[in-house]
Amino acid sequence: MDNITVKEQPVCRHAHITEKTKTGGTPYVKGWCEYCKAFVYTDKKFCICCMKRARHETHHLGLKRILNSGIQQLEKTLNDFESNPIGMKHNELLYGEIVYNNKRYHIPMKYILLYKQNKVPKDMYSEIQDHTTIAR
Q1: Which of 26, 56, 58, 96 is the most buried (most CB within 10 A)?
Q2: How many other C-beta atoms lie within 10 A of the C-beta of residue 29?
């Protein structure tokens, strides 16, 4: 038979946490460690259990800044769009052009309008980011 070497699991120095654990009073940030396969406290970039790189939650700050400037730039258009809505099928075809940091972004009006009305759930930001294009 072949000799199979089994890697020993690293000794965990800290208790793992759940997805809903708050990190407000601690000097750590919550993140997902692929090596530990659990949510862990992280010290900026590294898991404090195994010292491997951890992945943090995406906050989509850049997208939110683009949408905020888009609301200011397209204010008149959005007000017209709110008062005279077109069918949902056509809303996905209408794109708003937003100029932000010397770049032109094209985002569907449907998403800009939802963001203006504060009706965008957290999980929808990645969908908005997928539909956002940068025009040259």
Answers
A1: 96
A2: 15
- What is the residue whose two structure tokens read 């809303």? 91
Q: What is the dihedral of CA 39, 44, 49, 52, to 10 degrees?
A: 100
Tokens of 108: 């569907």
Q: What are the phi and psi torsion angles at 34 (to 5°)?
A: -65, -30
What pLDDT is stored for residue 86 in this prediction?
Answer: 67
110-120 burial, b at 16+ Cβ within 10 Å, e below that, comes to bbbbbbbeeeb
DSSP classification of residue 117 = T
Which strand (E) or helix (H) includes residue 109? Answer: helix 109-116
pLDDT digits (tens, 9 = 90+) for 6-35: 656 555 555 567 777 777 777 777 777 777
